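Hey, I'm writing a tutorial for new members on how sequence and structure tokens pair up, and I'd like a real worked example in the thread rather than a made-up one. If someone can provide the structure for the chain below, I'll link this post from the tutorial.
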Amino acid sequence: MNSTTAVKDPVCGMDVDMATAAGQTDHKGQTYYFCGSGCKKKFDANPEQYLSKSAGTPKSGHGCCS
């Protein structure tokens, strides 16, 4: 059985498959997954900025991911 687990990229809000995520970071005992290296770099530079905002709707177009 091959099940996938989707999580939200904390930077852009995009759904990311944990198995195929472009990057991941451990922060305060939690693992975060990213759609691309740009979102990972933004998160690594200032994780609290992205963790303090509510997990809202994804930004339209995902300009960070192109």
